[in-house]
Specification:
8 helices; single chain; 35% strand; four-stranded mixed beta sheet; alpha+beta; binds flavin-adenine dinucleotide; globular; D-Amino Acid Oxidase, Chain A, domain 2; 384 residues; FAD/NAD(P)-binding domain
Length: 384
C-alpha cells in the first residue's frame, strides 16, 4: 500500500485548485477523478461567469469566498494566460416589483463588500447594452467571464509541475481509518484496485460529495439534491443581437430542500471563441440559460429537456429582439445543491480531523475555487 501525504477526491475546478494550492507547500499529493477527463461535471457545464458576490447572505462562506475568489481568479488568469474578461453585468428590473428586488440586492452588495455596484436608469441601461429594455438595473463592474476548461487544464498542469499525481478513471470506492491515517481505496477503469494510506483526504466530489463523505462515515447525513440547469445558445448574426456584457433578470427566491435561495434566472452570457492567431476572444455565441429544476438522478442531463419557448418567455421581457428561431440547443449542467443549507460546507469529518469534506459547492463555486483552495490549505496549516 502506497503511503501518501494527501488524497484529493474529484478533479473538478475545486479539486484541481486545491491540488495546485497544496502543491506549493507539500509533496505526496494524489488527485483521483472517476471520469476519463477532468472537469466533466459541474465545472465543465456552467455559465462560466465570474460572479461579483451579491446574491449570498452577508457573512456566509459563499459571500466571503466569492468576493475573494473573484479577485484571485482575474489575477491567476492574467498571470497564466487563461481567458478571463471583466465584461461586467447588469441585473435588470422590468417593473416596480423587480426594482424592489434589485434595491435589496444593492444593500446586500454593500454588506458583502462587492466593489462598484450601482443603480442605473433605463436610458443608461439602453446605452450600456443596446437592445435591453428595463426601467432600471444594477451595474456590477467586477463580474466577468472565464473559460472554465482552460482554467482547469492550467491548474492541473501547474499542480503536475509541482509533483501532484493526477489519476483519471480512478474512482474512490472506500475510505477508512487505519493506523491513525486514512486508507483510500481506488478502483481504476481497467478493474484494478489500489490502496493509498493518506495523512489527509480532501473530498471535493461535487454531486457525489455526500456519498464520498459517507464512504468514510456511514452516519454522515449530508444530502445533495441534483439541480439541472439547461442552456440554449444563439449566434449574434446581426448587430441587434450582439451582447457585450452579462445580462441577468431580477432573481427570484426558490426553495430547494429545506432552504430558500436566489435563483439567478435565465441570463445572456457572452462566450469565448478561439481566433486564428490562437488567442481566445469574445465570440458571437451567446449562452442563454440556465433554466433550473430539481431532477431525480445525478447524471441525467437529457430527459425532458425544455423547449426554446420556455427560454424566450423569460428573456423577451428584457431582450425583446430574441426569437425562438434564433435558439439552438446547448448543454445542461447539474448543480450540487445541499439540502441542509444554502451555503458551502467545508468541514472536518467526525471520523478523522484530517478528512475534509467540501459539500454543496454549487454556484458560485467556479468563481470561488481559488479562495476555497486557500481556505482548505488553512485547515492543513492549523493542524501543523
Ligand atoms: C448549470 C450551472 C451553472 C453554473 N454557473 C456558474 C457560474 O456562472 N459561476 C460560478 O462561479 N459557478 C457556477 N456554477 C457552479 C460551479 O460550476 C460549481 O460550483 C463548480 O464547478 C464546483 O466544482 P467542483 O470541483 O466542486 O465540482 P465538480 O466539477 O462537480 O467536480 C467534482 C468531481 O468529482 C468527481 N468524483 C465524484 N465522485 C468521485 C469518486 N468517488 N472518485 C473520484 N472522483 C469522483 C466527479 O467526477 C467530478 O469530476 C454553475 C453550475 C452549474 C451546474
Amino acid at each position: 500500500m502506497e503511503k501518501v501525504f494527501c488524497s484529493i477526491v474529484g478533479g473538478g475546478v475545486v479539486g484541481c485548485a486545491i491540488a495546485y494550492e497544496l502543491s506549493q507547500k507539500y509533496q505526496g499529493i494524489f488527485l483521483f477523478e472517476k471520469n476519463r477527463y477532468l472537469g466533466e461535471e459541474q465545472s465543465g457545464r456552467n455559465s462560466g461567469v465570474i460572479h461579483a458576490g451579491i446574491y449570498y447572505k452577508p457573512g456566509s462562506l459563499k459571500s466571503r469566498l466569492c468576493v475573494e475568489g473573484n479577485r484571485l481568479i482575474y489575477r491567476f488568469c492574467a498571470e497564466n494566460g487563461v481567458a478571463a474578461l471583466r465584461i461586467g453585468k447588469i441585473i435588470v428590473a422590468t417593473n416596480s416589483d423587480e426594482e424592489q428586488i434589485i434595491k435589496r440586492l444593492l444593500i446586500r452588495a454593500k454588506r458583502n463588500g462587492v466593489p462598484g455596484v450601482h443603480l442605473i436608469d433605463g436610458a443608461e441601461v439602453a446605452a450600456f447594452q443596446p437592445g435591453v429594455k428595463a426601467v432600471s438595473a444594477l451595474h456590477l463592474p467586477t463580474t466577468g467571464i472565464v473559460n472554465a476548461a482552460t482554467l482547469i487544464k492550467t491548474l492541473a498542469k501547474l499542480a503536475r509541475m509541482n509533483g501532484v499525481s493526477i489519476l483519471t478513471q480512478a474512482t474512490v470506492s472506500g475510505i477508512s481509518v487505519r493506523e491513525e491515517r486514512l486508507e483510500v481505496r481506488v478502483l481504476y477503469g481497467n478493474g484494478k484496485e489500489e490502496r493509498f494510506l493518506s495523512e489527509w483526504v480532501v473530498n471535493a466530489a461535487g454531486l457525489y460529495s455526500d456519498e464520498v463523505a459517507r464512504l468514510a462515515d456511514s452516519e454522515e447525513t449530508y444530502k445533495i439534491i441534483p439541480f439541472r440547469g439547461e442552456y440554449y445558445y444563439y449566434n449574434a448574426v446581426s448587430a441587434d443581437l450582439e451582447v457585450k456584457t452579462n445580462v441577468y433578470p431580477a432573481p427570484v427566491l426558490v426553495k430547494v430542500g429545506t432552504k430558500e435561495r436566489y435563483d439567478v434566472g435565465v441570463h445572456l452570457t457572452p462566450t469565448f471563441g478561439l481566433e486564428s492567431d490562437g488567442r481566445e476572444r469574445l465570440s458571437k455565441r451567446i449562452l442563454v440559460g440556465p433554466l433550473g429544476r430539481v431532477i431525480s438522478h445525478k447524471n441525467d442531463y437529457q430527459t425532458g429537456r425544455l423547449p426554446p419557448e420556455e427560454f424566450i418567455s423569460r428573456v423577451q421581457p428584457f431582450f425583446p429582439v430574441l426569437r425562438v428561431e434564433n435558439l439552438r440547443l446547448e448543454y445542461a449542467g447539474i448543480q450540487a445543491k445541499p439540502a441542509h443549507t444554502d451555503d458551502f460546507t467545508i468541514k472536518r469529518s467526525r471520523i478523522h480531523p484530517h478528512m475534509i469534506n467540501l459539500v454543496g459547492i454549487d454556484s458560485p463555486g467556479l468563481t470561488s475555487s481559488l479562495a476555497v483552495a486557500k481556505f482548505v490549505a488553512l485547515l492543513f496549516k492549523d493542524s501543523e
